[in-house]
């Protein structure tokens, strides 16, 4: 391993643990450290390596995974998670336990939920040791609960889960999940209502303040009547067109008579 790596590793830990976290410095150090890990064959290790080097390499990749979420870079998180799989699976029995393992796995589970990859979510769950699934590990339990509430349509529980997140990084994915839920609810509102009071729309869409609701409404192209305190849902010409009931009935009767003559 490079002689400069131990010092860079300590610099990374200091920058990562600083409050607030020095994201820019962490990113620079991670780029340099990953190059050193690749040169030492530790980015995706194979065979025998010094246990100390493996532990440091795993810690660097885990910090990289958390840094990715704090930087709101999901593709980067996916790469770090993929690189960590060798450490979590192939070297699990020889390395000391990592306190960041469960949080990283939990973050990946929530990522799969936000991407609507439910099958992959359950595949990941099935790959975990049974004791982790039946235990009270909050980092695993949180995404499992989220998935159940989503399937039940208990969106209020998903919203409240943000404040119950076991790590700050989890809130990023819960916010993303709520964005998807809001759009689904908004689509239903557009189909079910011509208009809604601002207060009711805010409640249905889980907006705690008025300004966020108004910004969302503008993005959806809704009309806002501030005087009347209502939102008017815009619909396309096709949606507004009335169904020609009489023509449909007449056509159906004609079809029925013709069918009767054939029989």
Q: Could you give the count of β-strands? A: 3
Mean pLDDT over the full residue set:
87
Low-confidence stretches: 236-241
CATH secondary-structure class of the largest domain = Mainly Alpha
Q: Tell me the fraction of residues in β-strands, as a range.
A: under 5%
Strand order of the largest sheet: 1-3-2
- Output the number of helix runs: 14
- The CATH level-2 architecture of the largest domain is identified as Alpha Horseshoe
Structure class: mainly alpha
What's the main sheet like? 3 strands, antiparallel
Element order: H for helix, E for strand: HHHHHHHHHHEHHEEHH
CATH topology of the largest domain: Serine Threonine Protein Phosphatase 5, Tetratricopeptide repeat
Please give the radius of gyration in angstroms. Answer: 26 Å
N-to-C CA distance: 87 Å
Percent of residues in helical segments?
55-70%
Structural domain count: 2
- Overall geometry: elongated
Keywords: Proteasome
Pfam families: CSN8_PSD8_EIF3K
Domain PCI: 72-250
Protein name: PCI domain-containing protein
Give the topology, please.
Blueprint: H1 5-17, H2 23-39, H3 51-70, H4 74-90, H5 101-114, H6 118-126, H7 130-134, H8 138-152, H9 155-160, H10 170-192, E1 195-197, H11 198-204, H12 210-220, E2 223-225, E3 230-232, H13 237-240, H14 245-262
Antiparallel strand pairs: 1-3, 2-3
Helix pairs in contact: 1-2, 1-3, 2-3, 3-4, 4-5, 5-6, 5-8, 5-10
Describe what you observe in this structure.
The chain is mainly α and 263 residues long. The chain folds into two domains: 5-191, Serine Threonine Protein Phosphatase 5, Tetratricopeptide repeat, CATH 1.25.40.990; 193-263, no CATH class. The protein has 14 helices and three strands. α3 (51-70) packs antiparallel against α4 (74-90) and α5 (101-114) packs antiparallel against α6 (118-126). The longest helix is centred in the last third of the chain and has 23 residues, at 170-192. Residues 72-250 form the PCI domain.
């Amino acid at each position: 391993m490079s002689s400069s790596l131990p010092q860079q590793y300590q610099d990374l830990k200091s920058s990562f643990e600083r409050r607030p976290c020095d994201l820019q410095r962490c990113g620079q150090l991670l780029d340099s450290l990953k190059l050193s890990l690749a040169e030492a064959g530790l980015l995706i290790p194979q065979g025998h390596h010094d246990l100390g080097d493996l532990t440091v390499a795993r810690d660097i990749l885990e910090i990289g995974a958390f840094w990715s979420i704090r930087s709101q870079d999901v593709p980067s998180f996916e790469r770090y998670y993929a690189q960590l799989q060798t450490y979590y699976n192939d070297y699990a029995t020889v390395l000391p336990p990592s306190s960041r393992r469960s949080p990283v796995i939990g973050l990946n589970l929530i990522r799969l939920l936000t991407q609507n990859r439910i099958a992959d979510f359950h595949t990941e769950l099935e790959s975990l040791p049974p004791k982790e699934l039946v235990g009270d590990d909050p980092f695993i339990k949180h995404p499992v609960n989220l998935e159940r509430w989503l399937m039940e349509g208990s969106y209020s529980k998903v919203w409240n889960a943000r404040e119950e997140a076991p790590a700050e990084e989890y809130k990023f994915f819960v916010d993303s999940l709520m964005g998807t839920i809001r759009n689904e609810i908004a689509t239903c509102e557009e189909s079910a209502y011509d208009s809604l009071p601002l207060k009711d729309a805010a409640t249905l869409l889980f907006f705690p303040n008025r300004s966020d609701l108004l910004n969302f409404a503008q993005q959806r192209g809704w009309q806002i009547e501030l005087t009347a305190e209502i939102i008017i849902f815009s619909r396309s010409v096709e949606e507004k067109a009335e169904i020609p009931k009489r023509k449909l009935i007449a056509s159906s009767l004609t079809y029925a008579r013709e069918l009767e003559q054939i029989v």
